[in-house]
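does this look right to u?? NAP version
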Amino acid sequence: MPKTYAVIGDPIDHSLSPNIHNAAFRFLNLEHTYIAYRIPKGELASGIEALKAIKIAGFNVTIPHKIEMMELLDEMDTTCKVIGAVNTVSNENGKLKGYNTDMIGFLDPIKRKNLTVKDAQVLLLGAGGAARAIVTGLVKEKAGKITIANRTLGNARKLAEFAIKNGCNANAISLQEANKLVSDYKFIINSTSIGMNNEPSPISTESISKNSIVYDIIYQPMNTDLIKKSKENGATIIYGYEMLLSQAACSFEIWHKMEAPYNEMKKMLLGVT
Ligand code: NAP
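got this back:
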């Protein structure tokens, strides 16, 4: 039976999730539909009621609702609880269950490239919602040390405390301090929103070398300034679109209980990024 899925957030018109999921439906000859549905901040509860009324089968959640949505769930899985945010919801006869696929979405591209964060020194730029999922993944994979660099130092400190509480060595610094320390880190991950509007890299790229692994989770544009300069310096690159794709594939598998057509979803995404 054809079902409807959605991504909710605000703004939502530039979301690539409908492209990815509808490409998968077409490839698998499924008659489902995936739509983008704008729910402004402050209107989440009524927006969710509207989705329930049309018997939405499942939906993704993005900025600004990832945390508030947790209050409207009937159930949530462990990852969602640990991260403290939800990005995927299934609707089973009116009961909403929440998941967070950002952590697997973050780790999967690292594994696909046969890389590992185990025992690695990691410099994480940013301490927002995505960073919390990333830190949860880094802790799970036993990173050696996580240094969190952020504009608002207090947010970086809170996230470092979260990592320490979960058994990982972590500290917090400013973005300015990070500039001087780049060469000490194997993994450099950007989870700030700097780059979405083609801004210069959030940190100096001079010390990034062929031994560095640079992961920018921004997916639009695909080649941020950080990625372009790191590529010129010979670093190994992991693109934001790879995380987007992996978290979408993971949501697909939760809803449809079948393997996601990763390559078809990737072809669609590379055609539009
Ligand atoms: P968020 O919760 O709003 O966090 C934004 C982060 O960027 C914070 O650390 C913030 O620092 C920092 N920041 C924002 N503007 C800045 C500026 N002008 N100068 C310095 N730092 C600045 O957002 P989020 O959900 O974590 O998302 C962050 C980025 O990741 C977005 O670009 C989003 O599209 C991308 N993302 C990608 C994927 C994927 O699948 N590839 C998944 C999730 C998110 P403060 O703490 O100082 O405010």
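The first strand starts at residue 4 and ends at 9. idk if thats expected tbh
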